[in-house]
Amino acid sequence: MKNLDIDTLKGMSNFEVAALFLENSENNELGLKPINVGRGNPNWINTTARLAYNRIVEFAIQESLKTINEDEGSMAGYIEQTGIADRLREFLSSSKEDKFIGDVLDYTEKTMNLNQDELVFEFSNGAIGNHYPVPSRSLINVEKILNRYLEQSLYNGVKLADQTDVFPTEGGTAAMVYLFNELKISRILQPGDTIAINTPIFTPYLQIPELSEFNLKEFNVSSDESDDWQMIDAKFDELKDPSVKAFFVVNPTNPASRAFSKHALDKIKEVVEANPEIIIITDDVYGTFVNGFQTIYSVAPKNTLLVYSFSKLYGATGQRIGLIATHKDNVFDKIIAKRTAEDESVKKEFTDRYSLVVPNPLDMKFIDRTVADSREIGLYHTAGLSTPQQVMMALFSLTSLIHENDESDPYIEASKKVVDNRYQTFYKSMGIEGNSSIDNAKYYTLVNIYDVVERKYDKDFRDYFESNVHYLEFEGKLASKYGVTVMDGSGMGTEDGYIRISLANQPAENYAETGKRIAQLLEEYHDQYKNK
Ligand SMILES: *Cc1c(COP(=O)(O)O)cnc(C)c1O
Question: Ligand 1, atom 2: nearest CA belongs to which residue?
Answer without folding.
Answer: 285
